[in-house]
Design a protein that fits this description.
307 residues, mainly alpha, 13 helices
């Protein structure tokens, strides 16, 4: 009899139906980002490549790796120029960017980012121009140092910009997202150094690639742990595919850089893998944010947990 009762208890059905997360007429609780994926995710990637590239360029300059330093300075100028172009394209017209410079508001990531780009861009341009022409070496050294000082902020302020929104996948990871962007930017800059610099000067870039790959993995795991159920947006759909590809490419690029980075073909292939992995990371994080904003369950759950 006891066994039958236990069997019945195990087979009993729940009286309360499983909770379903719905919103008013099935519409998103918050408005999904209206930013263009190509423009803004590309803006995130190119800004990171530029900022981290300036840091590695300054380090290469100090350690006597002149060809690598010049290549990174030129690539940083190209990256920040394309990054600004992508931002302006998303805004619709150049005047909207200049209008943001009318106000200096330290509490606004958008305002500070606009001013940051406005100061960093000319410094990156001066550093690249003096390196290519060989003229005004003192001015070039000062510009290189200035760009390197602003480089970390350029590489990571877009993470603060995204986390400052109500998008669950971004705001919920506001502590880890800057570290993730910094690691991804470092991997991209190391990849650029491997592609554009001579193999004989690639030792620091190969070391940076390995450290960046490890840091990116750690930051991603920490973000997913903090996000809880919202972390599903980092594992599923388009974002999941992009981020899995990012991990594979970054790991392969870092391994190739460490083991075979002294050989030109292998160094170039590893560098391209690191660049592609960094791009996939930025586009994947962007896609995860859009997915989390569109699904009501990711915006309703945090409110219930707090209650």
């Amino acid at each position: 009899m006891k066994g039958e009762r236990r069997g019945r208890r195990r087979g009993e059905q729940a009286m309360v139906p499983r909770a379903e997360f719905e919103s008013y007429y099935g519409r998103p609780v918050i408005k999904p980002p209206s930013w263009s994926a190509t423009d803004i995710a590309g803006y995130f990637f190119l800004g990171g490549l530029a900022g981290a590239g300036s840091v590695l360029a300054a380090a290469a300059q100090v350690t006597g790796r002149g060809r690598t330093a010049t290549a990174l300075k030129v690539s940083s100028l190209a990256a920040v120029s394309c990054s600004a172009a992508a931002l302006v394209h998303d805004l619709g017209r150049p005047g909207r960017f200049t209008h943001m410079l009318r106000v200096f508001k330290p509490t606004s990531p958008m305002s500070m980012g606009s001013w940051l780009l406005s100061v960093y861009g000319p410094l990156a341009g001066a550093a690249a121009l003096t390196a290519v022409t060989g003229r005004l070496p003192r001015a070039g050294a000062a510009a290189t140092a200035g760009a390197a000082l602003l480089g970390p902020a350029v590489a990571t302020y877009t993470a603060v910009l995204a986390a400052d929104t109500a998008v669950p996948a971004w705001h919920g990871a506001h502590r880890e997202l800057p570290y993730l962007f910094a690691a991804s930017a470092t991997a991209a800059a190391a990849g650029m150094a491997l592609v554009a610099g001579p193999p004989g000067e690639s030792a620091p870039a190969r070391c940076a690639a390995a450290l960046a790959a490890a840091a990116e993995t750690a930051a991603t795991r920490a973000a997913e742990q903090r996000l809880g159920m919202v972390a599903e947006t980092y594992r599923e759909g388009r974002a999941g595919t992009l981020l899995r590809n990012a991990r594979t490419l970054t790991a392969a690029g870092a391994a190739g850089a460490v083991l075979l980075g002294r050989y030109r073909p292998a160094a170039a292939a590893s560098g391209l893998a690191l660049l592609a992995g960094s791009a996939c990371t930025r586009f994947g994080v962007f896609a995860a944010g859009v997915a989390s904003a569109q699904d009501p369950k990711y915006t309703v759950v945090p409110q219930r947990e707090e209650a």
